[in-house]
Write a structure and sequence with these properties.
The chain has two domains: 280 residues, Zn-dependent exopeptidases (Aminopeptidase), CATH 3.40.630.40; 85 residues, Sporulation related repeat (Alpha-Beta Plaits). 40% of the residues lie in helices and 18% in strands. It contains 13 helices and eleven strands. A six-stranded mixed beta sheet has the order 2-1-3-6-4-5, sandwiched between helices. Strands 8-9-7-10-11 form a five-stranded antiparallel beta sheet. It binds zinc ion. The site of zinc ion has 6 residues, from loops.
């Protein structure tokens, strides 16, 4: 605690003393940044592009963990990345998945950013494994771009960025960016970060999935100056799957099950993020769950709804056949008592089970417009994440398909 406060104080002092130098670094960084954004190339059939960046590779093994395994961070990050991409491709035909590498190669860090910026990607996900001198340290953390709030976060970012030193022309390619210079991180953090909210939303989804569904220790969403998330011009996160310096966690992350759990968690975080984005933009979302482990089985209504009039102002008109819209308000790994305070006094809540997850919905209508009113009211009631879902004859269907069918 004391150490962190001192670091922040020292950083503030350095900022004042090195203001001029900082300004020069900003200019240099801005030049690199502008150079990185050039002609876009995009598959027109795809409406959303995600770039997945498996950390390290080739000559850069990443961290080697306890040293008990031949495979290192670069192998685990690649395995998990490819699995995440596979799940997305299987379920979202309209999403283009671009990898910064698919084999044991080392794209330079600035090239990884270029790949994403040239593709005008909608999302950038970098996947890594953590290390610490303290072998007891374990758990997951997800980073978004920003000024580190602890010395530990700065150290993690410095270690990851040090890959640059393995590159041949790093002084030429990175201008004022010096992975081991604290000034670099302050200068970088002063850049405008217009994607912070979206990055934070995705990062939170990832950590929630790791904690709730995979039972990992949640070290939280953090900020730090990782090169790849600083110079990508879109919402960007960097996921640290866990500590390879911790024997138990290293065993887990080397196991097939471990990698599958972590990959499916990141996939579900992506799915939740995309559903929200689609709702805001009115874009089509065609997710059709297939081979996703755990709770990502097709969602089937487990209960038939009965007509009830809500006394809380939430419209509930039973729809006997065809398409109905409802608003999902909560999910839980255990069944919830509908009389509990979590439901804020709603007297008609439907439950359906998808895999091991219990999902709860309020309101019911055959009109999408009315569903939007219900959603608004539920958000005002404090269900901040309430979103609209659609069913056709008891089967969960794509929302946009439902809107299309009900408006035609
Ligand atoms: Zn790494």
């Amino acid at each position: 605690m004391h150490k962190d406060a001192t670091t922040v104080e020292m950083n503030a002092q350095t900022k004042i003393n090195r203001g001029k130098r900082g300004a020069m670094i900003i200019l240099a960084l801005a030049a690199i940044f502008i150079a990185a954004v050039s002609t876009p190339t995009k598959d027109h059939k795809k409406t959303f592009t995600v770039v997945i960046d498996p950390g390290h590779g080739g000559k850069d093994p990443g961290n080697i963990g306890t040293g008990r395994f031949k495979r290192t961070e670069k192998n685990i990050s690649l395995d998990v990345s490819l699995q995440v991409g596979k799940y997305i491709q299987e379920n979202y035909p309209e999403v283009e998945v671009i990898y910064t590498r698919t084999g044991d190669t080392y794209p330079e860090l600035y090239q990884r950013c270029e790949i994403a910026n040239k593709a005008k990607a909608d999302l950038f996900i970098s996947i890594h494994c953590n290390a610490n001198d303290n072998r007891q340290a374990f758990g997951t953390e997800t980073f978004v771009m920003g000024l580190h709030k602890s010395e530990e976060s700065l150290k993690t970012a410095m270690r990851e960025n040090a890959s640059i030193y393995l590159e041949d022309n790093y002084e030429k390619n990175y201008g004022g960016f010096d992975p081991k210079n604290p000034d670099t991180y302050i200068a970088m953090s002063l850049r405008e970060n217009i994607f912070l909210d979206q990055s934070l939303a995705l990062a939170k989804n990832v950590q929630d999935e790791f904690r709730v569904k995979v039972g990992r220790k949640d070290r939280g969403v953090k900020q730090a100056g990782y090169y790849v998330i600083a110079f990508t011009n879109m919402p960007s996160i960097l996921v640290e799957l866990g500590f390879l310096t911790n024997e138990t966690e290293e065993d887990f992350l080397h196991s097939d099950d471990g990698k599958t759990y972590m990959a499916s968690a990141i996939y579900r975080a992506f799915k939740a993020y995309k559903e929200k984005t689609d709702l805001k933009t009115g874009k089509a979302s065609n997710a059709t769950a297939t081979n996703i482990p755990e709770e990502n089985k097709p969602e089937i209504s487990a209960e038939t709804t009965k007509p009830v009039t809500e006394s809380t102002g939430i419209t509930y008109n039973e729809v006997k056949s065809g398409i109905k819209f409802q608003v999902q308000i909560l999910t839980s790994s255990k069944p919830l008592n509908k009389k509990s305070s979590e439901f804020k006094g709603l007297d008609k809540v439907d439950e359906y089970i998808s895999g091991n997850v219990y999902k709860y919905m309020a309101g019911c209508t055959s009109s999408f417009q009315e569903a939007k009113t219900i959603q608004k009211k539920l958000r005002e009631k404090g269900f901040n994440d309430a979103f609209i879902v659609a069913f056709e004859n008891g089967q969960r269907i794509d929302l946009n398909e439902a809107i299309r069918k009900t408006t035609n």
